[in-house]
Amino acid sequence: MLDIETILEYNMEKYGPFLGEDMIQDVHREFYRAYGASDGEENAVGVMVYEICDADNEEEDTKSRIRLLTSENDEALDLLQEMYREEGVYGEDIRESSYWLEEEKCAFSCERAGFSKERKESETVITTLAKASEIPFVVKLKKFPPYIRSIDSLSPEMFHQAVKDALFSGRKGLLEDLGYLEKEWFENTVSACTITDDKVSGLFLIRVTKSGIIEPVLLVASGPDSRQNLALMIAYAVKKGIERYPQTSQIRINRARKEITALVDKLFPGIKGNEAFFGIRKEG
Which H, E and C letters describe the chain, residue by residue? Predict the structure, then answer.
């Protein structure tokens, strides 16, 4: 007989092999939830992790993205789906659920639970620092104006005000929990900013996961020079990254919106994601 439980600090180690070190970091975040399946001998056999989206937006229905679903046991997958519907969908008043999964077995589990299932190119792409260093405008730039800096030069107050300004303008990047994250959560030397009249006018926030994967998570700039400053911050971050990390380091980019896809296509022509499965389910 299988047991399904919420993954919390006290049982995190049991499910660690299924979660992986990067997802263990994420499970502690504000809008992440995780369930685990174990057998009668308390051995972990599977996990589900999802993120609640638009929870702080009164104008939008609450949505959810399944970030991880894995098990070799069909019964465990189906029980995790039941737990998600009962505790997640109904408990959090979720109105729409979706997933991106590379394991077809797990996508079939979602289909059995009422999700659609479509095979398509993943929204996530992987490149490297070496490839990023070959971007033409990155190669061309040898010196940077003094108003381009790493965010480690910002006081906590300046950083949090910059985040508030981004959120006020409707920019949260790929972070549902942007307003809850401390400055230290980001890679402070590689993440870049622009300063105009002693205020932050642009942010390029980058996270480096526990396993060493580089993830751009927010790119925003305001003012008449915003387009130029976006390019400057990208180039600055790449060059700082090359100084600090191996050129073989992976950069993982989530093309969750059309403007991100357009930018990625421009920076890395021809880049493709792995084949994956996407599905959606209306709730309520």
Answer: CCEEEECCHHHHHHHHHHHHHHHHHHHCCCCEEEEEEECCCCCEEEEEEEEEECCCCCCCCCEEEEEEEEECCHHHHHHHHHHHHHHHHHHHCCCEEEEEECCHHHHHHHHHCCCCCEEEECCEEEEEHHHHCCCHHHHHCCCCCCCEEEHHHCCHHHHHHHHHHHHHCCCCCCCCCHHHCCHHHCCCCCCEEEEECCEEEEEEEEEECCCCCEEEEEEEECCCCHHHHHHHHHHHHHHHHHHHCCCCCEEEEECCCHHHHHHHHHHCCCCCCCEEEEEEEECC
**Topology adopted by domain 3-123+277-282:** Aminopeptidase (3.40.630)
Q: Does domain 125-254 have CATH number 3.20.20?
A: no
Residue written as tokens 């092999």? 17
* Same fold flag, 3-123+277-282 and 125-254: yes
The domain limits of the chain are 3-123+277-282, 125-254
Give me the residue label for tokens 């190119």. 121
d(CA 234, CA 221) in angstroms, rounded, equals 12
Q: How far is CA 19 from CA 10, 26, 194, 200, 283, in A?
A: 15, 10, 36, 36, 26
Please state the pTM of the whole predicted model: 0.94
What is the tens place of the pLDDT at every residue in 28-77? Answer: 999 999 999 999 889 999 999 999 999 888 888 999 999 999 999 999 99
The alpha carbon of residue 254 and the mean position of all alpha carbons in its chain are separated, in whole angstroms, by: 7
Structure tokens at 118: 């479509």
Backbone Cα Rg of the chain: 20
